[in-house]
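Q&A log
Question type: sequence-to-structure
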Amino acid sequence: MDKEMRTIFRNNVIKFIIGLVLLSISYVYIQWHPAEKASIFSGFEVLYQRIEVFFYKIVDKDSEGLKNKFDLEKTFNELISSAETKWCADASVVDGLREVMASLKKGSIADLANNMGNYTRKINEYKAMIDASCK
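Response status: OK
Response body:
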């Protein structure tokens, strides 16, 4: 190797090491900040959901119902994370939210149309329970 190639190689090795250090710092930051971690992973989830809704539109399935189901799941996930981050929230509230979330995920889109009012009522009830236990 001539002198110019060694200089290029050395510069590339230095850039590689700096990149590894920055990548390690980013990884540690994401591990210690759960909100950042959730936002990154939720971005992929939202992208998948939008592709699925688009596919439902193409094949003439109930894409609006699927979108409503995803929106409800997002609302319940936000309530669960809100209840978990507030130390004053009762554990039974979090367990109840998880049960409702599980039933929502298991249910079909047709069932969702029939039970939309019920889920909306549960959202409001759980919000009130979380707020009441944290006063």
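Response note: The longest helix spans residues 3-32.
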